[in-house]
Amino acid sequence: MTIDGSSPVPRGGPNKQNHSDVVYDDEISLRLLLRALWHYRRLMLALTGTVVLAVCLWAFSSYVFAPLEHRAGLEFQLIFDGVDAGEYPNGLPFSRGDLIAAPILEEVYDANDLERYFSYYEFKNKVFILEGNRALELLGFEYQGKLSANGLTPVVRNQLEEEYLQKREGLHIAQYSLNFVQAGSLTSLPDVLMSKVLNDILATWAAQAVTRRGVLKYQVGLFTADALRDELATSDDYLVRADVLHGKVRRIVESVGELETLPGASTLAVEGVGKSFTEIRVEMEDLVRYRLEPLIEQLVTNSLVTEQGKSYVSTRHVQISRNRRVAKEREVSLESALRLYRYEQDAPGSRSVAEDRGGALTTDEIGTTTLIPQMGDSFLDRIIGLATESANLLFRQNLTIQMLEAKEETARLIDEQLFLDWLKQLLTVPDSNRRGDRDPELVAVMEARLSRVSAAVVEALDQANTLYTELSTQNLNPRTNLFTITNPFTVTTLRSTSLRKLGLYGLVVFMASLLLVPLACLIHHYFQREILPSRKPDAFQLDEPGSHVDTAVGP
What we know:
By secondary structure, this protein is an alpha+beta fold. It has helices at about 30-40, 40-65, 100-110, 120-125, 135-145, 155-170, 190-210, 225-230, 240-260, 275-300, 305-345, 355, 365-370, 375-425, 440-475, 500-535, 535-545; strands at about 70-80, 125-130, 175-185, 485, 490-495. Helices cover about 60% and strands about 5% of the residues. Strands 1, 2, 3, 4 and 5 form a 5-stranded antiparallel β-sheet that branches. It is elongated and about 140 Å long.
C-alpha cells in the first residue's frame, strides 16, 4: 500500500497472478508530500505563529523582569614613589587592598549615612578594586600576534620577547578602577551619591595614609613637644623630672642622628629655623653635658630629693641592670649562632664544588661552561653551589646586623647604668655632708634652671620636627596627592539576560518550529492515511472507494 492508500500494482497488469513476479514500488512521490503539506497549511501557519508569539512573550518577559545590576566605576592612577615595588614612599608595604580597608569603609559609610540603604556588611561586599592598564593590554595583543606568526626562528622569537619585556616595563603604570556593584532595587543608591561615595573612599584612604600611618614621613621615632611637656609634668620631684628629661634628650639625640643620614638632610635649610640637624644634635648633647647633669648633681647635694626620688632611682637602677643582662645574653647568643654556622659551613662535607676541586674554576672551564653548558652532574652541582653560597651570605649578613644592633643596645644600657650608678652614689652621701633644710630661694632657683633647660629642649625639638617635616615633604611627597583620577565616573547597567542572547534563542526556536511543525503534520497524515485504515478496512473502503483494487478476472 502506498502513501495515498492504493495497493501496489503487480508489474505486467492487474490480472497477473504470479506472486513471484510482483515488484513493489517503494519510491515516495514529492507531489504527494507537497499535497499533504498543502492540506495542513492553515494548521502549520497557526502552530508556527503560536510558537513565534510564545517565544516573543517569553523573551519580552525575560528581558523586562530580568535582574538588573548597576556597576559604577571610577578609574584612577597611583602616583606616589614606590608603588611599582609595592611600597609607600617611606618604605611601608602597600597593597591595593589598603584602599578598601575596614577603617576607610567604615568612615565613608558613616559620613554618607548609607545605613538607610543597606547594612555595612552589604556595603563592604559591594566595593572592589580591579587593576587595569589599557596600554599594557594593547601591547600584549600586539606581541601575541607577532609571536604567533609562522616561521619564527628561536633568535627572532627571543628578540621579540625581550622587546616586549622592555616596552612592558616602560608602560607599567599603577592604574586601577574602584567599582561599586548593586542589584536593581527600590533602595539602590542614586548616581550622584554613588559618585560621591567612590571619591570619598579614595580621599579617605589618602588622608588616613598620611595622618594615621605617616606614609609621607620617614620611619624615625621623634618626640613632639606636647608629648615631652606631658612627660615632664608627671611628677613633682625635681630629680624624677630631671632624669625623665635626661632620658628623653638621649633618645632625641639618637633620632636626630638617624635623620642626619637621610638624603638632603645635611643641606636642608628652613626659614625660621636657621639650624641643621647636626647643629641641633650638638646643641642637645652640650645641653645634657653642661647644664642638665650639673643641675642633677646640685639637686642631690642641696637636699632637694624626696623619698620618692630615691625610690625612683633605685627602681631605675634595678631595671637597667636587668635590661643590660638580657641584652648581653642576646649578644652572646647571636655570636654563638654565627660561630656555629660558620663552623658548619666550613666543614669538609659542606664545601662547594670549586673548593673540592682545589680552588676556583679555570679560565677554560669557565669559557666552556658559559658557551656550551653541559647539563651533567658537575654543572648542576655548580648551580646549586652558587645558590647555596648566595643564601649563606645573606644569612650571615642578617646575623651580623642583628649582632651589631645588640652590641649597640648593650653599649647604650651600659652608659645609662653608669649614669645611674653615679646618681646612686650621690644619694649615698651622708646627710651631714649636705645642706640641711630646703632654702625657698634655692628651690626657686633650681625650679627656674630646670624650666629653662626644659624650654631649651622643647625649642630644639620643635626645630628638629620642623626640619623633619620639611625633609619628608621634599623627599617623599613631591606631588600634591597620592592619586589622580584618570577617567570620569561611569555607571553601567547590566542585565542577567541580553537582547542578543534572547534573539539567538528565539531564532533557534523559530528554525526548529519550521522543521518540527511540518514533520508533525506529515506524521499525522501518515497515521490518518496508513495506520488507521489498515485497522478498519471496511470503513476505509467506504471512505475511499477509488483506492480499491479490483482483482477479478473477466467481465
